[in-house]
Amino acid sequence: MKPAELGPIVTSDLAPERQRRNALSKALRFDGAPLLMGIVNVTEDSFYSESRALDSEAVERAQEMLDAGATWVDIGGESTRPGARPVPPETEAQRVVPVIEALRKARPSAFISVDTRRAEVARKALKAGADMVNDVSGLRDPAMMDVVLDAGCAVCVMHMQGEPGTMQSNPTYQNCTQDVSKTLLEKRQALVERGHPPSLIVLDPGIGFGKTQNHNIELLQAGRSIGQNQEVALLWGVSRKSIVGHLTGQSHPADRLPGTLALAFVAQQARIDLLRVHDVEAHVDLFNTLRPFTRSPSRQEE
Fold first, then answer.
1. Of 109, 127, 213, 221, which has the fewest beta carbons less than 10 angstroms from its beta carbon?
2. C-beta contacts of 250-255 below 8 A and 24+ residues apart
3. Is 44 exposed, middle or buried (0-12, 13-18, 19+ CB in 10 A)?
């Protein structure tokens, strides 16, 4: 689904109109293949150097991704790679808000996500024109849930054990899939109980965030069972990550596109709703190639 098909969806305040909400809901669901979320890192230290872009370059990069077939672009101003140091919220907001404002002006109908774990950054980004909060901390900050509820925006709740600086020190679970699923579904239920539309909630198992490689593989093998039913939207973020290096033997992110595309095929087979990716055009080519050979049953048939 491309944003232009849905028309302008941004309103003057944070409370979305019904048309906007319906458009967002459709933009979060599997459509014969996972919908694509292009990664734009307005940072200087994200793990994949080609994803970094500042100011006007970031706006241009986002538009290129939309033109290539991305349904979403995800704008982030803080690296959360393993070992990363926190960025002050003021600095993070200064990075992402101007990019979102400029992108919204250039592309009124685009679907824009802000990648942040700070409530104050999320609120500013939503006012600037973002449609979704992508929170790698899984709404750990209670104020973030309030921001999401006040805005009525889409939200991606990711699982992360620990903090980015230390999360890979010794990740431990009793049962990784069960623990991750339970945590995510409890957070989803808390949102729903406070009145948030279930159709605007996406869950992300957090591949590489406080997990060993065996944990990562287990979570990917679990597929849609993380959500326990077909009505829960799921996102995978595996693009060029260490899990790809582990499976392929490629130590440098620049060499991990083939492995990334292989996991995209796994995601398509598992009917994962969204993929967060660096290489939009390559993923579009992959799914266009697969489409004639893939039957796409309705959810009723599942």
1. 221
2. 253/47, 253/48, 253/49, 254/48, 254/49, 254/50
3. exposed
**Contact between 102 and 146 (Cβ < 8 Å):** no
DSSP state of 43: S
Instruction: Give the bridge partners for 277, in sequence order.
Output: 38
Distances (CA, A) of 112 to 13, 66, 97, 198: 16, 10, 12, 19
How many whole angstroms from its chain centre is CA 272? 12
| Catalytic hit among 276, 291, 295, 299 | 276
Instruction: Provide the whole-model pTM.
Output: 0.89
pLDDT digits (tens, 9 = 90+) for 70-114: 999 999 999 876 766 788 999 999 999 999 999 999 999 999 999
Ramachandran category for residue 11: left, alpha or beta (phi over 0 → left; psi -120 to 50 → alpha): beta
- Residue 276 annotated as catalytic: yes
**Maximum mean pLDDT: which of 41-55, 119-133, 164-178:** 119-133
Look at residues 210, 214, 194, 88 and name the one whose alpha carbon lies nearest to residue 161. Answer: 210
3-state secondary structure of 49: helix
Close Cβ partners of 139 (under 8 Å, ≥ 6 residues apart): 145, 148, 155, 157, 187, 191
* DSSP strand pairing (111-115 vs 72-76): parallel
pLDDT the model gives residue 302: 46
pLDDT higher than threshold 70 for residue 298:
no
Does the pLDDT value for residue 10 go beyond 80?
no
Q: Say if strands 201-204 and 154-158 run parallel, antiparallel, or are unpaired.
A: parallel
Q: Catalytic site residue 241?
A: yes
Angle of the 89-106 helix axis to the 119-128 helix axis, nearest 10: 20
d(CA 163, CA 184): 17
Catalytic one among 124, 241, 256, 271?
Answer: 241
